[in-house]
Amino acid sequence: MNNDLILLGHGSGGRLSHQLLDELIIPQLSSVPVSGQNDAALLNIGGIKLAFSTDSYVVDPVFFPGGNIGDLAVNGTVNDLAMMGARPLCLSVGLILEEGFSKAELAKILASMREAADAAGVAIVTGDTKVVPKGKGDRIFINTSGIGAVEHNLHIDGASAQVGDKVIVNGCIGDHGIAVLSAREGLEIDSGIQSDSAPLNGLVADLLPLGPALHVLRDPTRGGVATTLKEIALQSGVTIMLDEKSLPVNPGVKGVCSILGLDPLYVANEGKLLAFVAPDQAEVALARMRRHPLGKDAAIIGEVTETSAGKVQMETLVGGVRGVEMLAGEQLPRIC
Amino acid sequence: MNYSDSFRDKELVQGLARRIAELTKGLSKPLVFMEVCGTHTMAIYQFGLRSLLPPEVKLISGPGCPVCVTPNSYLDRAIALCRLPDVIITSFGDMLRVPGSSSSLMEERAKGADIRVVYSPLDAVQLAAKNPAKRVVFLGVGFETTAPTIAGSIMAAKAQGLTNYFVLASHKTMPQPMAILSADPELQVDGYICPAHVSAIIGADAYRFLCEEYKVPCVVTGFEPTDVLQGVEMLVRQALAGESKVEIQYSRVVRWEGNAKAQAMLADVFTPFDAPWRGIGVLPGSGLRIADKYAHFDAEVAIPVQVEELKEHKGCLCGEILKGKVSPFDCPLFGGKCTPESPVGACMVSSEGTCAAAFKYGR
């Protein structure tokens, strides 16, 4: 095999992405291995604590049920900051447009960016626009970077999960991935599923009063809940036991997944977070989440059972136990 | 509770598991049952069913994943085709990562080949209609469940008068490899969990000769956890009573005679041939090639191309794994040199492959 080529799977957020980061990108650019990385960098500048994050958006199709690339680009970076417990302050926006892209569509995308930024309470303060020749890009790509204020002294970190912690998710999993997939050319399933794209900073603000009982916050985007939990298990050196029957999954998502041979645990989310909370505060955290509009379907989906090299297991619906691994390669449809 | 949930009922499943444990308690040698369908392989791992069964019952996986049994030579031909400038390759997704002798379709796509994942062969026919200057080749891989849809695509292309739609066919048919496995003295199979949807097409009668010639119990079994465990219980009861007959557990779908319409389509479009199975070899009458009267739709006939020399991957135990002789964990490459993102053997590629399932769920 030719190992020189970048494959689509390198962008899946799963094992290949980790390999690319660990073997090529991080060694060249940084000293922190990816296993020690979080959604945003924490900076201390003259005593002021900031979170800093960046993300690029290449979603296809650009418009999908429940959103478009514009609100996704704002919410995604807002959420990366929020997962550090930071209060998002401002964003930059880089637009890469393909020659021939429609101004009317661009206007729609910008309007949703503005709306999403207002909803999240962040300002878009700087930006850049480039145009590439027709065929050298795909309609529109967006990069956003963001800065947030860290106003707490907690150690909210992927490496902070502790034995006994309860794992809480704020609602149904897999909506975004299925909404995008359903709108893709050649598939066009009328699933009725809307993307869950949403800013999570408000929900996080409601969780911060839990104080030191709040150990990990992470948004399970590409690679889904399974990949994110495996990352946390590895970072913290623990075993996480999931309970399949308590996983909230929209019936429409379940249906599309079973037609296409996908597992909702690996499908992307854009408005979900996983919180690891000390057991004595778990019910309080759950109640706080459920009071927030983005957390009304929140559920405890598992717990940290022991220290280990980093394992995720799941008690299945029928009481069996199986392992849960990171997404490998791209998520592919079934063959028979 | 909806319809499918009722087949995943925890109490029912655990009750079945208890009954199997009671029936087999104290057996000196475990009963070994083989499933020969990738969807069973996945279901067994996905629901953790092995962890519910007593040590007296062992489930092993046979050659039931169509991608996994597709030989290197087929991939090499597909790769040679995709390098032609006017060819669009269409395929179900799993085929893209399967390594051929020196490349894979995913690698060729990264280099610029036009390779598209479709969800139905009819999408490939549509693509051909929209791109008259291109030759659209569909990679026809699969058992009797997939083959009728591909036969249908050839019929549709014919009806539309398309001359730029082709199928590279490597279909496999089911009962034959089970006979080879049953005759293998190294392999002790006490019963077959027969495929669910393959059997819906070919009918449960297709397995009778196995019971008669090899004295091995066969139960056509569905894919839900209660189906699988009920199928296992039926196999246990037959094995303990010294019986060997065909039974249908999956009676809500499968009939003794199968689906006559699908069988007629297969008979019209395809001809049985001696197909090569990865790791097993050429099995007489175990595959379907495109019939002569449809030869102009057969990519192998209609698009001549130079195919590279065949190279097998050293150290890969896919062949032994496909025969159920060793488990993925026994392969020295498993999880090290061979992982889902850089698979050495096909069993690690397809989501229904034994190694991929073991990697994802089994550790």
Kindly describe this structure.
The complex is a heterodimer of chains A (336) and B (363). Chain A is built from eight helices and 14 strands. Chain A has 336 residues and is α+β, with helices and mostly antiparallel strands. Chain A has two domains: 112 residues, PurM-like, N-terminal domain (60s Ribosomal Protein L30, Chain: A), CATH 3.30.1330.10; 158 residues, Phosphoribosyl-aminoimidazole Synthetase, Chain A, domain 2. A seven-stranded mixed sheet of chain A has the order 9-11-8-12-10-13-14. A five-stranded mixed sheet of chain A has the order 1-2-7-5-6, with helices on one face. In chain A, strands 3-4 form a two-stranded antiparallel ribbon. In chain A, α3 links the parallel β5 and β6. In chain A, α2 runs parallel beside α3. Chain A is globular and about 55 Å long. The C terminus of chain A is likely disordered. Chain B is of the alpha/beta class. Chain B has a single domain, classed as HypD, alpha/beta domain 1 (Rossmann fold). In chain B, α6 links the parallel β5 and β6. In chain B, α1 runs parallel beside α10 and α6 crosses α11. Chain B is globular. Chains A and B meet through α1, α7 and β14 of A and α1, α2, α4 and α14 of B.
Shape descriptor of chain A? globular
- Biggest sheet of chain B: strands, sense, closure? 6 strands, mixed
Sketch the topology of chain A as an H/E string, one letter per element.
Answer: HEEEEHEHEEEHHEHEHEHEEE
- The helix/strand class of chain B is alpha/beta
At CATH level 3, the topology of chain B is Rossmann fold
Average of pLDDT of chain B: 91
The name of the CATH architecture of the largest domain in chain A is Alpha-Beta Complex
In the sheet with the most strands of chain A, the strands line up as 9-11-8-12-10-13-14
> What's the CATH first level of the largest domain in chain A?
Alpha Beta
